[in-house]
Amino acid sequence: MPRSLVTDADAPADTGTLRALLRRYEKAGEPVACDTLTEGLLNRGYRLTTTRGRFFLKHHLDGDRDAIARQHEATRRLGALGLPVAPPVADSAGETVVVLGGRCYALHPWIEGRHRDGGELTAAQSRRLGALLGRVHKTLEQVMEGPEGAFQGAVTARDAAADPEDTFALIEELLSLVRGGDSRPRDCFDELAEHRLIERRALLELHAHRRPPAAATPARGWVHGDFHPLNLLYRGAEPAAIVDWDRLGVQPRAEEAVRAAVIFFLRPDGTLDLAKIRPYARAYRRVTGADAAELGAAVHRVWWERLNDFWMLRWRYQLRDHRADPGFPASAALAVWWTGAYESVREAFTD
Question: Which tens digits make up the pLDDT trace of 176-188?
């Protein structure tokens, strides 16, 4: 195996580091290969092949060992109650977080499977997806101890809906960058970005009065925090593992249900597959006991969030990070379509 396993500066860069890590485990074997799988903002992921098999190696960039260990314990408890998860492997000392050179790593079993978006799911599978997320929320209530009760119904800074005045200022900043913030020639992405920014500014001017009040925040509880197709592995027709629990926390639960559906069931043309959202939402409500009013409030808040959100353009123009570019056309079209189809979308989640 070559000394340089991956090119990422934050990755385990040599065989010695991997051997030192694997020595912490009784039956992990010796490293054979290490392939980069993910390069997220919160972690890096690798397929680690050893003389004993394959593992998923996760490098947690934030380095908060205690927080990572709490996430691990949560997934262990969820797994014990029947949720499809992939808790980390404990080392010979019983620890699930290994710190080497000031960096935090975790070794997970390798789960065979693939990602599936909503376009690949039948109506029945969409219903099971909604039920699965409902089970996640209900089971998290059982396994998480401590602050969840204190958060129920509380209004915090995180609950405040986006201020349209801040969004107008961001739009102007992004328009300036799109129109010539550097010396590179304009391309078709720049043309689309400019069009969508101007279009969104007009929509916000028309709908600014619909900003959700803080009092309308749906019930809060423990959530996965990042439930979408890339964090759910399927084996055949059924989910094999929910992965990436880095954003585990207390948030409005129904908003996660709406946000996940919007990602799963977004079509390439920027519309939502409401025929699949309807069974998904019904199953979620049945499992959690959430009523139509809670889902309706969540729909409104997530719609407003989308109307004010430009993270993909911020990545491209402010951070020079192009990883989100492919998703921009559909995501930008969604905000416009959703505004026009607002009542139909709300009905799909609350019917």
Answer: 999 986 667 889 9
